[in-house]
Amino acid sequence: MNLVQIYPIVIRWLIISIPFSTVMSAVYNFSGKVVLITGSSAGIGAATAVGFARSGAQVVVTGRNPRRVSAVGKQCSDVSPNGLTALEVTADVSKEVDCKQLIDSTVKAFYRLDVLVNNAGFGLNAGITDSHFGQTLDQMFATNVKSTVVLTQLSADYLIKTKGNIINISSIAANMTVPNLTGYCITKSALDMFTKCMAAELGPKGIRVNAV
């Protein structure tokens, strides 16, 4: 049996034998990095926060519900290989004052920021002929788009210092039509364009900006 035949066997053995968490920790090591995830008290944001914590990052968990924020913060602290305690900040990112408080609290606690994950967002059902369409559009823009713009602006100087990253959580809705979800589709399209603009503007300054 030659090396070409042995190699696939060894790879299969490694995949079966080594725990997935061990592989992840080896490949994605965020020790020493400070990661802020908005909308991280539930769903995708919570899973993202726990994933970063498991990979060694100092995580900042935030959301509007203090009980949920605390629960996810505990999960992050429990899985941290470095014994780190997650910073828990109750905030509504649709409000600029809360966005400022969030960034200020992070920098005050850790003196740096390496990764900003703009995850907070939601969709509301409203057709263009519905009387409440304008109101729902304003609500979604405040959270889905403006919060990302404001937090990017507030964190840019810190991310330039660390040559950090901004990750914006988008949606397939940015590129398709969904009846009665026009407002949501608009906000995600706007988020995608903002991401491209920031990649061009902040890239030369050392910040990588991407949308997922």
TrEMBL record:
InterPro entries with a match to the protein in the record: NAD(P)-bd_dom_sf, Sc_DH/Rdtase_CS, SDR_fam
PROSITE patterns according to UniProt: ADH_SHORT (PS00061)
Gene Ontology MF annotations: oxidoreductase activity
Alphabetized UniProt keyword annotations: Membrane, Oxidoreductase, Transmembrane, Transmembrane helix
Keyword tRNA processing: no
Annotated transmembrane regions: 6-27, 34-53
Signal peptide residue numbers: none
Domain of life: Eukaryota
PANTHER family: EG:BACR7A4.14 PROTEIN-RELATED, ZGC:101858
Family designation: Belongs to the short-chain dehydrogenases/reductases (SDR) family.
Name by which UniProt lists this protein: Uncharacterized protein
Species the sequence originates in: Medioppia subpectinata
Upper lineage: Eukaryota, Metazoa, Ecdysozoa, Arthropoda, Chelicerata
